[in-house]
Design goal:
heterodimer; A: about 220 residues; alpha+beta; 5-stranded mixed barrel; globular; B: about 180 residues; alpha/beta; 6-stranded mixed sheet; 5 helices; 6 strands
Chain lengths: ~220, ~180
Amino acid sequence: MRKFLVLPGLALVAALALLATSHGDEPASAKSFAALATGGLDVDYTPLATPAAAVAAGDLIVEGTLTSVTDGVDLQFANPAYTERWKDSFVTLVVTVDRVVEGDPGQLHNGKVFVQILKNKAVTPEQLSGVNANPRVVAVLDNLSDWNPGGGATVARPGTVPAAAPLFAAHVDGLWLQGTADVVMYGLGASPQDLGPAWGGADTVAEYAAKVWQAL
Amino acid sequence: MRKRNWSLVAVTTVAALLLMPGAAYAFPDNGDNTLADNATHTYCYTSSFNTDASVGAYAMSVLGNTTDMDDLFPIDPPFCAFMETDVWWHELNLAAGIRGSRSCWLESPVGICTSSDLTLDFAEIDIGSFDWEDRRKVAVHLVGYSVGLNDNGGCAMASGPVPDAALVWRTYCASDITDINGAY
């Protein structure tokens, strides 16, 4: 009888350890941030097949640090049901830039870029802020100044982004985060394994940025 | 003796529940850990989904014709109105190279996505060759997400543009179909 009690007991301990690991503190990792941001969200995208393709596609390519997370743009429609469907779809990543890899540095606002990404609708910017480990970031960005989403939608800027700051969107496989405890970078909808052979197996922010530099 | 046995059962049950993946993990490739709420996948079009609405119907029929799931298009009202409809088809310029997206509008209860928004960016999809095939590939791909599939490198769940006009890119792999039929 004792043996029968010990086995489930061990299983219970193992299960609790597993849960603790999956929800444990990882303050220096970008892993939790990436997982939380992309839950319930899936995308199909045109890959940046080569570093040269990234240079061609990006209006701006930067390296920096994810310093904060705030409200994203809202898409608003004449039909309120459509507005409701798109509510909370975006979040703003504020990246403090320390190196412009490619593009006009004049697009920065006080040394920062404000990047819109699609996110898990069930997660708030505050929750994402809570797991922001201030990772290193490399980002291939499109300037959204003339973005027209179509479909009758208008874009409402978040009040938390300075009015004079341009908004950007990041390519799915052109946005990578890496905390100080991470040996590899994390994407928001892509993984390093998704990068084509021309990227030479780049799996860190530094390696990805170096590949872009080489393509300039 | 009987009381002790019930204690054992209780402990074993708790341990098993903690160790056992929930129903949401039925798919090996289930990326966001949610499934649709039942085997009948209803869908509707938003008013802007008009560049090529047949793409949505094509993708839903692939699901209905090749798996144990059914697809259902309620014709009244003509456009999306009920939040509970399983799939809302949208068309937008998603920017930054995104060809299509699937977003769970409401996960309730946990592990079940009550309704998904599937959005196509036709201009982005139409870059390159095989537009007719590529539009349908993306649509089938997004429907796959909505029932629990994830990118797996094969068939319709391969990521990115189609390399050729082959039908394989617009259908689910046998393993995907096995997963779907096992879950619904």
